[in-house]
């Protein structure tokens, strides 16, 4: 059986590898739809709150109103220097790869799976007309891809 849950968060990012408007710092209202595999164990499979109690605080703490940034983006060092010089704390969600919606899907799939949920599919809406559908098969393939390049896991800086 599948249970579907929807979440949202606001975050800034840029893709420093592109030579178009997306290389500029900008933000999105991301919509995240999770499709969980659950098994009936009686009259009830899972409480919806079981998902919300773990996933909502994680998204708020790690992503909401943060800047997702690739640690190899030159802007990252500039932001670290700015925080050190001014004492200002910026909410940065660091990625070991460019902050594309595809890479965000991989990162979120990993984090939600590590919470112990059986995620079947994840959909991320970046704009009203642009959605990435990311499956467990995509996640397995991406894990192989990232492992072959020995990319370290992302880390969060706040």
UniProtKB/TrEMBL annotation:
Its EC number is 4.1.2.50. The keyword Cell division does not apply. InterPro entries: 6-PTP_synth/QueD (IPR007115), 6-PTP_synth/QueD_sf (IPR038418). Its cofactor is Zn(2+). Pathway: Purine metabolism; 7-cyano-7-deazaguanine biosynthesis. One of its GO terms (molecular function) is metal ion binding. Belongs to the PTPS family. QueD subfamily. This is 6-carboxy-5,6,7,8-tetrahydropterin synthase. The lineage of its organism: Bacteria, Pseudomonadati, Planctomycetota, Planctomycetia, Pirellulales.
């Amino acid at each position: 059986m599948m249970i579907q849950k929807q979440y949202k968060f606001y975050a800034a990012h840029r893709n420093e590898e592109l030579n178009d408007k997306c290389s500029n710092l900008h933000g999105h209202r991301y919509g995240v739809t999770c499709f969980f595999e659950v098994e009936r164990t009686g009259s009830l499979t899972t409480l919806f709150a079981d998902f919300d109690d773990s996933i909502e605080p994680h998204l708020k703490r790690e992503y909401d109103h943060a800047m997702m940034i690739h640690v190899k983006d030159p802007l990252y060092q500039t932001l670290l220097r700015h925080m050190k010089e001014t004492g200002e704390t910026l909410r940065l969600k660091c990625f070991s790869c460019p902050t594309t919606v595809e890479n965000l899907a991989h990162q979120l799939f990993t984090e939600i799976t590590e919470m112990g949920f059986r995620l079947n599919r994840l959909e991320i809406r970046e704009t009203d007309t642009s959605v990435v559908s990311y499956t467990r098969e995509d996640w397995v393939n991406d894990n192989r891809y990232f492992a072959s390049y020995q990319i370290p896991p992302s880390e969060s800086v706040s």
